[in-house]
Amino acid sequence: MKKVYIYEPWFFIFFGIFHLHRIWGLVDRESYAAFWISIMESKGAFYFILMGILGLLCMLGISTFFRSLGHNYWWRYIYLCGGGYLLFDLFAIATGLQFWHNLLLTMFDITSPYWNIVWGGFVVLGGIVFVLGCALLKKRLCVTE
After folding, report:
1. Which of 23, 51, 75, 144 keeps 20 to 30 A from 42, CA to CA?
2. Please, are residues 120 and 26 in contact by the beta-carbon 8 Å criterion?
3. Cβ neighbourhood burial of 2 (10 Å; 0-12, 13-18, 19+)
């Protein structure tokens, strides 16, 4: 039987808000880039707490996908694809993979003509994911068991 688990709407709401915060990058490129490059390179407490939360949520989502094989909703494939990507991203940052570090520095290049496309894309993604989370929350709350 298909079921929306209690944590699933909050998973998408959290990731939606996380991506929507990138509006800051569209408003103030310099401080946004400086903040995240500093976080990424210093690897302090905030970095490890945030990465831990993101990593645990991705592992929870991926495990939900595999626990529900044969009766997954379409949006659970986001756990597999998005979660897999994010876990790789976290691994690459944590281990200092040079090509990934260079890619991130290119993404945070405030002089790039593609800045608004890159970060605007993340904002749009965040909005879609946030709306999905709200829809799942409504679906969960409207189900009578």
Report:
1. 23
2. yes
3. exposed
CA dist 102 to 18, 83, 109, 116, Å?
Answer: 22, 22, 11, 19
Q: In which residue ranges of the chain is pLDDT below 70?
A: 1, 143-145
Q: Which two tokens stand for residue 113?
A: 């003509």
Write down the pLDDT at residue 17.
96
pLDDT at 144: 53
Give the separation between CA 92 and CA 140, rounded to whole angstroms.
35
Per-residue pLDDT at 88: 94
Q: Which helix (H) or strand (E) holds 144?
A: none
Phi then psi dihedrals of residue 3, to 5 deg? -145, 140
Tokens of 6: 């209690």
Question: If we measure between CA atoms, which residue out of 26, 45, 37 comes closest to residue 101?
Answer: 37
pLDDT of residue 8: 94
C-alpha 84: how far from chain center: 11
pTM of the model: 0.88
Task: Give the SS3 label for residue 104.
Answer: helix
